[in-house]
Amino acid sequence: MKRRKVGNLLALSVLAYLSREPMHPYELSKTLRSYGDARSIRFNHGSLYMVVQQLAKAGFIAEQEVSREGARPERTVYAITGAGRAELRDWLRELVGEPQHEYPAFVSALSMVSALTPAEVDSLLRERLTGLDAQRAEAMAVIEKAEAEGVHPLFLVEESYRVRLLDAERAFVEEFIAKISDPVEGWGPMWAAAHGAVFESE
């Protein structure tokens, strides 16, 4: 992966929206939230303003004008630069074309899951299935609402991807539960014995 002058993915969103039209940070924040980007990129007003400053320092965006409405504080409108457009395209090409090694919290937990008893893990995984179903329902609601409003599926592709990931995780969790709970061929008895206990499947 190329080392970026500003590596925060929030910066990528800022560049993408400023490539459409100049905006001030408050307007950027409203736009990010209204388009659902908060579901994909974690940010708050403080982190957004910091990223805007970093992008300006790197030469990817530049002040276009300073405006004031009534008694409100001055607002600086930023526009993307030529270097910013080049960075946006290069960064997107890299993220779309090159798989990255990521560090999901669930994967980290799975690498140490044997520290818990199999009965506890079985129960927790069943709880997780309920949570995954709720997340899937939320993502589908976003898709259905947007499609009903005439939004093209291209602009919902991240939600479609999210649904596929949730489906894959759900299938994995169900398979893991089966491997734990099978009293004959499952991992439960051996796993429980390592904790000095006898495994009792449901």
Question: What would you say this structure looks like, in words?
Answer:
The protein is mainly α and 202 residues long. It is 59% helix and 6% strand. It is built from eight helices and two strands, in the order αααββααααα. The chain has helices spanning 9-18, 25-34, 45-58, 82-97, 105-110, 118-148, 157-181, 188-194; strands at 61-67, 75-80. Strands 1-2 form a two-stranded antiparallel sheet. The N and C termini lie far apart (47 Å).
Features:
mainly alpha, 202 residues
Mean pLDDT: 91
Cross-sheet strand order for the largest sheet:
1-2
Give the helices and strands as they follow along the chain.
HHHEEHHHHH
Task: Calculate the terminal CA-CA distance, rounded to whole Å.
Answer: 47 Å
How much β-strand is present in the residues? Answer: 5-15%
Low-confidence stretches: none
Fraction of helical residues: 55-70%
Q: Got a strand count? A: 2
Count of runs of 4 or more consecutive helical residues: 8
Shape type: elongated
Class by alpha and beta content? mainly alpha
Provide the gyration radius in Å: 23 Å
Q: What about the largest sheet?
A: 2 strands, antiparallel
Summarize the structure.
The chain has helices spanning 9-18, 25-34, 45-58, 82-97, 105-110, 118-148, 157-181, 188-194, and strands at residues 61-67, 75-80. It is mostly helical and 202 residues long.
